[in-house]
Hints:
Elements: H1 3-15, H2 25-36, H3 42-51, H4 57-60
Amino acid sequence: MSWTRLLALSMLAVLCVPLPALAWGADGHAIVADIAEPHLTPAALRRVTEILRGERMRDVASYADQ
């Protein structure tokens, strides 16, 4: 087998190895929610409050990750 082919197969093998995601975690999502909340219009904030049933955005920001 040629070195070029061996190198290509080695690189392909490395690319196929699953790596952990470098996600933000709950703190990162809460920080983004804190930044976003003041930028909502009053109507949007009322609607978000209705949808979240009174909970703050920061408290539910990482819901999908859980």
